[in-house]
Design brief:
This protein is α+β, with helices and mostly antiparallel strands and 219 residues long. It contains 6 helices and 6 strands. The chain has a 6-stranded antiparallel β-sheet. A hairpin with a 2-residue loop joins strand 4 and strand 5. The relative contact order is 0.23.
Length: 219
């Protein structure tokens, strides 16, 4: 979170040739109050957190506890949440700057011990923790198109999904953060992927969460 602060500007004081030291002190301008400016991005506002199963049969059947069903439901609820729309302002003096973005995360719950990790996954963990892999597909016309892309992407399908799986190789597991905003013709998304530690496949649970990220207009 970045905050801007105003900087005091000291005005030059011109003194007569005969001015004394006391005159200099008396002539110094009074400090001016620091004007508050709006933060550009506010802290995330959590919406929902649930678990979903990566079990093949559950996802083929799209049972209520499958990752496919849970993820789609939480994402759709977040995109339709009424609190995304501009309110009275981010604070008393900071106007709201449009519809809030949705932050949508999906990650495995359990990972293999580091002693059992491949060297490449340990290296990817360090590298992509600092610099995640980023993907910026074109805008999507509606929720169904967006959800289909996210599902395919996470399964290594389509051009973006194939590129991800080529870069996140071996048995290394991706952890996804999707930043989703409204576009003129639907939704736009940026995917940031941390590719790293291999997940423990004896645990099929994934953590799925949604949050809002609101921006304020800077004074």
């Amino acid at each position: 979170m970045l905050f801007s602060r105003t900087i005091f500007l000291a005005a030059a004081v011109l003194l007569p040739a005969a001015a004394t030291a006391d005159d200099v002190i008396d002539a110094a301008p009074a400090p001016q109050p620091v004007a508050e400016v709006c933060p550009r991005v506010l802290p995330e506002e959590p919406l929902a957190t649930e678990y979903g199963s990566a079990g093949i049969m559950k996802n083929l059947a799209e049972t209520d506890d499958s990752i496919r069903a849970v993820a789609a439901r939480l994402l759709e609820q977040a995109l339709n949440d009424e609190s995304r729309h501009p309110s009275g302002g981010c604070s008393a003096d900071c106007p709201d700057d449009g519809v809030a973005e949705v932050i949508y995360r999906v990650a495995p719950m359990a990972f293999l011990p580091r002693a059992e990790q491949n060297d490449i996954c340990l290296r990817f963990e360090d590298e992509t923790s600092e610099n995640p892999m980023r993907f910026n597909p074109p805008a999507f016309a509606d929720f169904d198109a967006l959800n289909t892309w996210i599902t395919d992407f996470s399964q290594g399908k389509g051009s973006d999904g194939k590129a991800l799986y080529e870069r996140c190789s071996s048995n290394c597991s991706p952890r996804y953060t999707f930043v989703i905003g409204d576009a003129a013709d639907g939704y736009e998304v940026e995917a940031a992927v941390l590719c790293g530690l291999a997940r423990d496949r004896s645990n099929d649970q994934y953590l799925i969460s949604t949050a809002l990220r609101r921006s304020c207009a800077v004074n």
